[in-house]
Amino acid sequence: MTGKQILQKLKEKACLGSAVADTEKSKTSKHPRHGYYLVKGKSRHGMEDYVFAKFKQVENNELGLFAIFDGHMSREIADYLQSHLFENILNEPDFWTETEKAIRRAYRVTDETILDKAVDLGTGGSTAVTAILINCQKLVVANVGDSRAVICKNGVAKQLSVDHEPEKERSCIEDRGGFVSKFPGDVPRVDGQLAVARAFGDKSLKEHLSSEPDVSVENIDDDTEIIILASDGIWKVMTNQEAVDCIKHIEDADEAAKRLAEEAVARNSSDDISCVVVKF
After folding, report:
1. pLDDT in tens, 4-35
2. What letter does residue 212 receive in the DSSP assignment?
3. Angle made by CA atoms 51, 96, 148, in degrees to the nearest 5
4. Closest CA to 81 of 12, 144, 13
5. What is the pLDDT of residues 189-203, one digit of tens each?
6. How many Å apart are CA 42 and CA 38, to the nearest integer?
């Protein structure tokens, strides 16, 4: 095991989180670097965020696979997604020809499997944001929930995912027989429980929730500087532009991810924090 791999292991232990990551750089001409960081929040439950960040060669193609899985009510669903969601996406027969369609199908199939395995996985849930960097030319982002993907070009932040908040999807939730409540001092919640309108799992609420992802495609060009994926522990206290500005002058991707998480803590974020940073 190399010194950097040992450092990665120590970092995972110190952050009390879970990550699937490699230390390889991209082999394409752009040479993007990626890093990640996790911080346990102030809640009494264990860390429920999971991270995936690695490059993968598939025949003559190079894929950068990045994701944040933010569990709620348990770790099991986020852990399952970390182990299976990208595998399911890449196993879709039309992934290369109809990528967006394949991702939507894989999200749906994965959620159906999670619900079928509720006896083993429990009735908790997880949000997810995934980003697939294809040959360092195209980025495909999909998400359910409120973890977020942001890209920076020429110093300007652009959000690539959709925050699935209950108030924004009230009519869909009510059409399914659910309701959205908001008590003083709290955020809107589906059936008085869940603070997101879309998620994997959550079997007891599934009739009123969706696991349909929003999918977006972004071209990677010479103006592309940074990609950030992060859980809501960062976005509750920072805007997209503030997050970009916080790390734009840091070359090392691991150090940038750490700095971003530390800034969220300094701004009194109390939630679990996880982030992946890709620097070009």
Report:
1. 443 443 344 334 457 776 655 555 556 899 99
2. P
3. 30
4. 144
5. 999 999 999 999 999
6. 13
